[in-house]
Write a structure and sequence with these properties.
Elements (H helix, E strand, L loop, with lengths): L2 H15 L6 H17 L4 H15 L2 H4 L4 H16 L15 E6 L6 H14 L4 E5 L7 H11 L3 E3 L7 H15 L3 E5 L8 H14 L3 E7 L4 H13 L4 E5 L8 H10 L3 E5 L7 E3 L2 H8 L5 H11 L2 H13 L4 H12 L4 H6 L15 H12 L3 H5 L6 H11 L3 H26 L13
Parallel strand pairs: 1-4, 1-5, 2-3, 2-4, 5-6, 6-7
Antiparallel strand pairs: 7-8
Helix pairs in contact: 1-2, 1-5, 2-3, 3-5, 5-12, 6-7, 8-9, 10-11, 15-17, 17-19, 19-20
């Protein structure tokens, strides 16, 4: 996500940080490039104009130009500006004082609204809620069937009716069913259209008036750029809503919608979808996103993903093995599988400060991990535990079993041996007190 914009901004500020002193002329030139980069990222023109003006005003102040690290000060100002642009702080979902809370999802067809309804139910259940899905999209063919299937696959309570039934009737009956079920959050998937029209808006306004939802969330597709912002503006004028759920953010290399929508509509992004799996819906943190865009990483999100997906006891045991440098290919395979639970490897790498522009020749992809897994799984248990017994004949057998060649087998064995050697040296340094305890550098 944001790859194009991130690359351009990092290049611009890399030049500034390499200079010991900055002049107003340097700042002006950099801001012109920032303006162009944001416009190319499909950020709203007025938003860009206001943003650049505010940043420039602060950047030519004495605290920047007279500082020892003026380039870094400019980056700090831009980071704060981007954070403010996207909402400053996380905007959490709000719930009724007395359950159930009703959350109404609205948006156009194709925005991912039905899938988002199921993802939201999964997300809320993981935080201790008892969600209930109501399928009220009677116009899109198979929308109700799609939501029912997702609900059944994920063991989430669900209600709908025949598509000939009026949507308001379905919603009211669904709320009664949810109350009987003892659910504390009701998620209503409403009907969308291919474009905004009076019939859709009148229907949504009627449901809002009769049902009085506690939250209305607008679902928009990040990849549609300024079209998503225009849709949000139209919904804001007719229906109003409390926040935005942005889908397909992981596929949006520009970022125009995410950077514009709060400034244009006054409504924050509350959640973002960064994948196809049910657990890919995440809270939106403006400060963390700004940090990622500027290549400064996102350690907090990485830690949260690790805490949610990695077994703490196993992690401690693995750290001890790494410290002693006696881990095996079985341990390595186990670590790979735990790490992949956290999400696509390239997304995880970019959360590490300084790793956003990893050179292509050393970048790791999910395909690389799949190949490594195939190689390790083609080894016997004895070979995984003691790799030094793998001779030429064994390498040929492993290559054949994994669909690779002996060169790739040799490469993996060499890298594994070098890693064990390096870890042994680092462990020795810790033992002699040359490195502080707990500073052992572990990257899965």
């Amino acid at each position: 996500m944001f790859d194009n914009l991130s690359t351009k901004l990092q290049d611009i500020f890399g030049k500034l940080k390499s200079r010991g002193k900055l002049s107003e002329k340097d700042v002006d030139a950099a801001m012109r490039e920032v303006r162009l980069a944001l416009l190319e990222a499909d950020v709203n023109y007025k938003v860009v104009k206001d943003f650049v003006s505010k940043v420039k005003e602060r950047a030519i102040g004495g605290e920047v130009l007279d500082s020892l690290t003026p380039g870094q000060q400019v980056v700090k100002i831009v980071n704060e500006g981007l954070t403010e642009l996207m909402g400053s702080t996380e905007s959490k979902l709000s719930f009724a004082p007395r359950p159930p809370s009703i959350i109404m999802l609205v948006g156009l067809q194709g925005s991912g609204k039905t899938t988002t309804s199921a993802k939201l139910a999964h997300h809320l259940r993981s935080s201790g809620k008892r969600p209930f899905l109501v399928g009220a999209d009677v116009y899109r063919p198979a929308a109700i069937d799609q939501l029912r299937t997702l609900a059944e696959e994920n063991n989430i309570s669900f209600y709908s009716d025949d598509p000939s039934t009026a949507p308001l009737t379905i919603v009211k009956d669904g709320i009664r069913a949810a109350n009987q079920n003892g659910s504390d959050v009701i998620i209503v998937d409403t009907a969308g259209r291919l474009h905004i029209d009076d019939d859709m808006m009148l229907e949504l306004e009627q449901i809002k008036k009769e049902v009085k939802p506690h939250q209305i969330l607008l679902v928009v597709d990040a990849m549609t750029g300024q079209d998503a912002v225009n849709v949000a503006q139209s919904f804001r004028e007719r229906l109003d809503f409390d926040g935005v759920v942005m889908t397909k953010l992981d596929g949006d290399a520009r970022g125009g919608a995410a950077l514009s929508i709060k400034a244009v509509t006054g409504r924050p992004i509350k959640l973002v979808s960064v994948g196809e799996k049910m657990d890919s819906l995440e809270p939106f943190h403006p400060d963390r996103m700004a940090s990622r865009i500027l290549g400064m990483g996102d350690i907090l999100t990485l830690i949260e993903k690790a805490q949610a997906n990695i077994d703490e006891k196993q992690a401690r045991e693995m750290e001890e093995k790494l410290r002693r440098a006696d881990f095996t290919f079985e341990d390595f395979l186990d670590q790979m599988e735990q790490m992949q639970k956290m999400g696509p490897i390239n997304q995880l790498i970019k959360m590490i400060p300084g790793m956003s522009k990893l050179p292509k020749d050393i970048a790791v992809s999910d395909q690389d991990l799949a190949r490594i897994r195939a190689i390790i799984q083609s080894m016997t248990r004895e070979e995984r535990l003691t790799p030094n017994i793998i001779n030429g004949r064994r390498r040929e057998r492993i290559a054949k079993g994994s669909g690779t060649d002996t060169h790739q087998i040799n490469q993996l064995l060499k890298q594994f041996a070098q890693t064990k050697k390096m870890l042994k040296q680092l462990g020795s340094m810790q033992g002699k007190g040359r490195m502080p305890k707990g500073s052992f550098p572990f990257m899965g």
